[in-house]
Write a structure and sequence with these properties.
Length: 319
């Protein structure tokens, strides 16, 4: 059975930077509060005419170029997003068309901030099972569109962006282990509880979060998952070279790093500049670190994400 390997990464951030000082002029918040509670200093906001598939397209083109793969070679496109362009068709189908290719399998994965972990695990299984040899896996979001910009408890936390990887079938692993978890009993602590029905929007189309409940759940679930992932690969904690975590809160990231015995210079942190970009945060961080030359061939990386659902997941891979 072949393995899957990351052959190239790419990402894209919208041009507009919204920093904490600008937010503090609009709502009752401060740079000091946001930085000390979350680690976030600024985030990007998509232009009015920029859609999730537009961001995904730019990230995908960069990943394809880095992998030396032409879009026509793709036999699978998986897009992780909780902010799709429209209810349907999938953002993956729209992205496929924008890439100028037609015919390969394309679908979205909806696991909110765990979306990239879910999408990567799905594509990995397609490659291992022989259903795909070259896959594009994307995390792309425009969370700025589902935020109540008067709600200081949520609007300071999120940003827009996209990240992508190209996976190729390979004799050498690649992705060693993926783990996916969900617990729908916690679906109300982080949600955007609206639907489209009868010609209108039914319910609240803004993100709602019980921050403390999410924080507690995330710290525990991510620590347990990190241990389970290493155990499944039969590798000790000391073998791990890098943590590429979902970028929600620096205190959650530090807690996972402590649990793994990793110093913070072995943890990829981008949330100070990106905020929480949901499904895009892991591939954005991965691409930034890869392009900075941080990962050496053969190094062991752990990717971990968690969010609404509740859903969480991980991937352990050799670079
Ligand atoms: O991506 C999915 C995963 N998401 C996460 O992992 C997020 C997890 N949760 C968190 O990161 C944190 O819970 C938050 C950053 C959201 C909040 O931090 P906290 O330390 O849990 O603060 P809190 O909600 O307990 O609020 C403390 C105080 C409250 O004031 P009172 O009631 O004590 O007077 C809030 O009203 O801070 C207030 N507050 C703010 N103050 C200034 C809440 N938001 C703000 C704000 N600026 N933006």
């Amino acid at each position: 059975m072949p393995h899957s390997r990351i052959a190239g990464t790419g990402s894209y951030l919208p041009a507009r930077i919204l920093d904490n000082a600008e937010l503090a002029r609009q709502i009752d918040t401060s740079d000091e509060w946001i930085v000390s509670r979350t680690g976030i200093r600024e985030r990007r906001i998509a232009a009015a005419d920029e859609t999730t598939s537009d961001l995904a397209l730019k990230a995908s083109r960069a990943a394809l170029e880095a992998a030396g793969v032409d879009a026509s070679e793709l036999d699978l496109i998986v897009v992780a997003t909780a902010t799709p362009d429209v209810v349907f068709p999938s953002t993956a189908c729209i992205l496929q068309d924008k890439l100028g290719v037609h015919g390969c399998a394309a679908f979205d994965v909806q696991a909110v901030c765990a979306g990239f972990a879910y999408a990567l695990a799905t594509a990995d299984q397609f490659v291992r099972g022989g259903m795909a040899r070259t896959a594009l896996v994307v995390g792309a979001e425009v969370f700025s569109r589902i935020l109540d910009w008067n709600d200081r408890k949520t609007c300071v936390l999120f940003g827009d962006g996209a990240g992508a990887v190209v996976l190729k079938a390979s004799e050498e692993p690649g992705i060693l282990v993926t783990k996916l978890r969900a617990d729908g009993r916690y679906r109300d602590i982080l949600c955007t509880p609206a639907s489209v029905a009868h010609g209108g929007v039914v319910g609240t189309p803004f993100l709602h979060m019980d921050g403390q409940a999410v924080f507690k759940f995330a710290v525990k679930a991510l620590a347990e998952l990190a241990s389970e992932t290493l155990e499944a690969a039969g590798l000790p904690q000391s073998e791990l070279d890098w943590l590429v975590p979902h970028q929600a809160n620096i205190r959650i990231i530090e807690s996972t790093a402590r649990h793994l015995g990793l110093p913070m210079d072995k943890v990829v942190v981008t949330l100070d500049r990106h905020g929480n970009t949901s499904a895009a945060s892991i591939p954005l961080a991965l691409d930034e670190a890869a392009r900075a030359g941080k990962f050496k061939p053969g190094e062991l990386l752990m990717l971990e994400g968690i969010g609404g659902g509740f859903a969480w997941g991980s991937a352990l891979l050799r670079w």
